[in-house]
Structures are given as C-alpha cells and as structure tokens.
Specification:
Layout lengths: L1 E6 L4 E3 L10 E8 L2 E7 L6 E3 H14 L1
Antiparallel strand pairs: 1-4, 2-5, 3-4
Length: 65
C-alpha cells in the first residue's frame, strides 16, 4: 500500500495511460486539520503519482513528442 499525506484540494492521479482500466481502492486513513492521509490499493503495474508530478511528466512527454 502506498501511503501519502495530502492537503485540501491536492489531487492524486492513478493510471492516466491507455490500458489502465483496473480497480482502485482509496481508503482515508486519517484526517488531521486540513491534512488527509489516504491509502491506495491498486495492481503493482499501475502508476500512482501526485497530480503535480503527473502533470510535470506529461509536460515533459509533450516536449519530447
């Protein structure tokens, strides 16, 4: 299980590539003020990224293409 601490309105993108149509289970593990701790259960071959990392990777891929 990947465990991340995120603040209000920060996103997590799971998958995002063709062929990743898998079940994703997101469990809230704790809430403290504006911080929410989420647990993600997904197949090990499905990429999981914080939204800002995924957006950077997408921008990098667009520059290469």
């Amino acid at each position: 299980m990947l465990v991340l601490s995120r603040k209000n309105r920060e996103s997590v993108v799971v998958g995002g590539s063709d062929g990743f149509h898998r079940l994703l289970k997101v469990t809230v593990l704790g809430i403290q003020g504006t911080d929410v701790k989420l647990g993600f259960e997904v197949d090990p071959d499905v990429p999981v990224h914080r939204c800002e990392v995924w957006e950077r990777d997408q921008a990098d891929a667009d520059q290469i293409a």
